[in-house]
Each structure stands twice: as C-alpha cells, then as structure tokens.
Tyr recombinase domain-containing protein
Amino acid sequence: MVSIPTEPPVFYPVAYQDEDYIQGMKIILQPDGTPWVEGNLYLFSRAKQYPKLSAETLGAEAANLTEFMNVMLDHNLDHLNFRGREFERPTYRFKAHFKLAVSRSERGAGGVNNKIRAVIRYYRWRMRYRNFIPAKPPWKEKITHISRLDRHGCTRTREIITTDLTFPNNKDESSDFIYDGGKLRPLHKFEQDAVINALLLVSNIEMLLLFILALFSGMRIQTVLTIRVGNVIEASADDTGTYSISAGEGFLVDTKYGKKQSIQVPGWVHHRLFTYLQSDRYQSRKAQALDRDESEQYVFLSKTGKPLYISHLDKDKYKSHEKGSAVRKFIRDTLTPLLKANGHHFTFSFHDLRASFGMNLVDERRELLAQGKIGYLELIDYVAKRLHHSSRKTTMSYLDYRRINEMVHEADTDYQRHIMSLVEN
C-alpha cells in the first residue's frame, strides 16, 4: 500500500477553501490502486479532530497505517481476523515484526511504539464508530499511574491505560545526554567557542546569525528559521538584556506543535540581526523572495530568495516544503570538516545548541543558588520558562546533567560578552 497526497477535484476552486478542505490530507491506496475506504475514513476523522493535528502528524499516521497493512499483506493476513491464538492475531503479529530489531537496538522502542499506537487508535476508532467487534481481544489493557513534576516542582500523578503491545523503552539514559525533544549533547564552552570561531572563518553571515540566535535563545530550528523581519528590534550592540519574540499558534513564527511561546532574545543578537537586514546582501535576497508585507518577510532566505524553512502557514505558497536542510548540510559538509581541520574532533547537531543554551542557563545561576540568593525551585522554574518545558522532568534533566558531569563555567552574561568580543574581532 502507498500513501499519497490528495488533490482537490479540478472543478474545486483552489482559491476558496471551506472548513472541509484539509491542507496536506493523505489517502492510502490498496495494491490494486483503489482507496482503502476504512483507513481513509479514519484518517479523515483524525484530520477533523480538535485541536487540529499538523500535516506532519497526519502524514506519520498515514505512513504508520500503510506500514501495518503492508506487514499484513506480506504475511497474507486479514487485519480484521482475530479468531486465532494470541500470537496469530494481527496486532500481535505487527509487534512481532519489530521484536528482533528492537531487542538488538537496531530500532528505537519509542519510534516503534508510535507505529503500534497508531494501529491501536485505528482499531479503537473501528470498534467505536464502525461496529467492529474483534472475535478475540486485540490486546490486553492495564491501568497504570505515572508521576511528573508540575510547574511548581510538585509531583502530580495521573492514570493512563497501557497495552501489552508496546515495547519497554530501550533508549540509553546516559549521563552524557539530555532528552529534550530528542537525544541532545550540550556543547562544552570550549566547543561553543570552536563553533563560533569556525563560523567566523567561513564568512557565512546567515549561518553565523542563526547559530548565535539558537545558542542564546534555545530556539528549535523551525523557530529560528521562521522568524520574520517584524520580530527584530533595533537595539544597541552591547545590550545583554532580553527582548521577546512571540511564536506559536496565532503568530507567524513556528514552534513545536504550535505551542505558544514568548522567546527571550538578547538585545545584542537583535542588533546584529537588525544590521544584517539593512545590508545589501539581505536586500538582494529579499528582492528575489515572494512578495509580501515587509514585516512578514523571512529573515533567513537563500541566495535565490527562498526561505530556509517553510512555515506551516506558507505551505500552499511554495512548491517545496523546505525544513532547514541547508543548515544540516552546512554542518555536515562545511562546519564539521573545518572543526576537524582545526583539531576539534567532536560532532554535534543543530538541536544540540538548544541543550547548550539550557546548560548555560543552569551554569549562570548555580552561583546564585550556592549563595542562597535563589532557591532550587526558583532555578527549576526559571530554566523551564526559558526553554518552554511542559514537563519539569525535562528541566530536571539539565540540573542532573550538570550535577553528574561537574564542570566549572563562567556566568552566562560573561559568556555572552566573550562571544560578542569574538564576533567583533
């Protein structure tokens, strides 16, 4: 089976999109080329639910169901036949399909569990809305309780229903990494210095600016690359105070899952962005860009005027749905080789800059904590707010990381001034 994007019928006026038009909706085709009716009805129900799912989430759901049906096809199984013994039932056969790869750590349990949960959602939908009654249980359920820290640092417990289809998490909880929307490794201060110096040697002002923006705000790549001209203010070159950029639902700047955020960016970073926007280099790129209100124009454009990351709000305006591939290619093909040539043999991803920012925040206030000027909960709350964490458990991982990997760093403000001096020279 294949999953393909649907297109409006030719007679449908594309300029008019009513509430039933779903941008990026996908359908699943059977081997004979006909639509899989029940699967597509399920996808449609997911697309119409509130809060609205992103196109990426809907696409992943379609891909997961397609993979499930292909496994059924490979084993000549009817995915509605639950009459057999437990290991013969479709849901258990799908789990067994991944068992060896997960046990060998060739596949992450988290990713596989996402596929299995998509299948569970599909069956629950069929049982609830399509009168499907399995001959025998498709899985076993149990009620369990999970605990998490709330925004005040207090433990809250909630009840969840789990099944025996998912795998125990096999991710490496190494103290060398932080798990914050992925497996991240904070760069040590000398590594951050090396990255900035390498960027200065390359003389690519766009890359220098977007790396600095991520390192001193904690923005994810989709947020950094979708900031607009109207988000940048005129500030002084030595201003270490912070000024907010609004992002997420209701704003032009993308965030993970559209979560509303007010992101604090140092004044000196604003200054450098503002200066860049006045440059002939940026004006040349903007002249080739899609015509739009100046305040809504992307800050980070390619040489041909294309955004380095297409906001979810603009997907219907561009043929390609660029998601920052130029940045990843730059790290792989330019920055990493240059670092190695200068004797620095570490590797990193752009997302590691977010973890580096988080650790810089912790280091900045550890001295205040040691002096008793702030409390432990105040430290947690401060870091959580700056990184926009929903779970305090994620924030705690930053504090645990520093406690386990004890190192002495200068205060963040001093480090900002150090980087500013590098950029000036």
